Amino acid sequence: VRLSDEELKRKAAEAAIAGGSIEEQKRTIQLAARLKYPSLAPYIEGGLKASDIASQFVKRKTDVLELAEGAVDIFDTDVQAAMSGDKLMSDYDYELRLRSNPAWRKTRAANEGAAGFLDSILKMWGKVG
Q1: Which end of the chain has fewer surrounding CB within 10 Å, N or C?
Q2: DSSP 8-state secondary structure symbol assigned to residue 102
Q3: Do 15 and 25 touch, CB atoms closer than 8 A?
């Protein structure tokens, strides 16, 4: 859950007043995360953070699209799509989503796959040995 600087300051101030606590502020943030990501609710209740779960999607996008480390974060549209909804997106569906991104066509893996496919066709037609 993204908090603005102002919201973060307000939560810190609420935790500092009498009767306030950091634990209470953590609970409100966890509740907001469970509402935003219903598919993650059991994991969040178990103590994981949305960012813990997002890290697998961040890493996969970085690898598939051959991006620099740190170029993708939890708020990336593909990562959000994978975590939102009634259930987590499967690895297969997430990879298909990433490969539908025009940037994937410029990756080394896409070019090697296309070259291999073309080579197979040429071999079938007897154009290459």
Answers
A1: C
A2: G
A3: yes
